[in-house]
Amino acid sequence: EVQLVESGGGLVQPGGSLRLSCVTSGFAFRTYSMGWVRQAPGKGLEWISGIDNDGRRTRYADSVSGRFTISRNNAANTLYLQMNSLKPEDTAVYSCVKYIGSVFNPRDTRYQYRGQGTQVTVSA
């Protein structure tokens, strides 16, 4: 059974930082590209970042580029999202996703599995 379990969310002031983690199991993590998506209150799902299976190539949505960094530890089956310079508009539930292939395709962000998510709230 594929499992994606996020943690690290919380309440942070504007300009602050958080690091999200996604511990995975049930599949060969090092074989697949992974990513992060988010859903703000009353809005649809937004793709924000993707990473190839070996971690060499990463991609970001314009809304987070330069502030967020995606990374992975294949030995630990864990995906990360470092979020800096957080803004109130970053408030959302953040979920990690597993893609079908090893190379992330920014033209096709359809995922195979998604975790339950962790809440990030940016507020003074």
Which SSEs are present, and which pair or pack?
Elements: E1 3-7, E2 10-12, E3 18-25, E4 34-39, E5 45-51, E6 58-60, E7 68-73, E8 78-83, E9 92-98, E10 113-114, E11 118-122
Parallel strand pairs: 2-11
Antiparallel strand pairs: 1-3, 3-8, 4-5, 4-9, 5-6, 7-8, 9-10, 9-11
Protein traits:
7-stranded mixed sheet; 124 residues; 47% strand; globular
Write up what this structure looks like.
Helices cover 0% and strands 47% of the residues. It has 124 residues and is mainly β. Strands 2, 4, 5, 6, 9, 10 and 11 form a 7-stranded mixed β-sheet that branches. Strands 1-3-8-7 form a 4-stranded antiparallel β-sheet, with no helix packed on it. It is globular, with a radius of gyration of 13 Å. The mean pLDDT is 97.
Compact summary:
By secondary structure, the protein is mainly beta.
β-sheet strand percentage:
over 45%
User: What is the tally of helical segments?
Assistant: 0
Oligomeric state of the chains? single chain
Radius of gyration: 13 Å
Helical fraction: under 10%
Coarse structural class: mainly beta
Task: List how many beta strands DSSP finds.
Answer: 11
Main sheet makeup: 7 strands, mixed
* Mean pLDDT value: 97
Spatial separation of the terminal alpha carbons? 40 Å
Low-pLDDT runs: none
Shape: globular
Could you spell the SSE succession in H and E letters? EEEEEEEEEEE
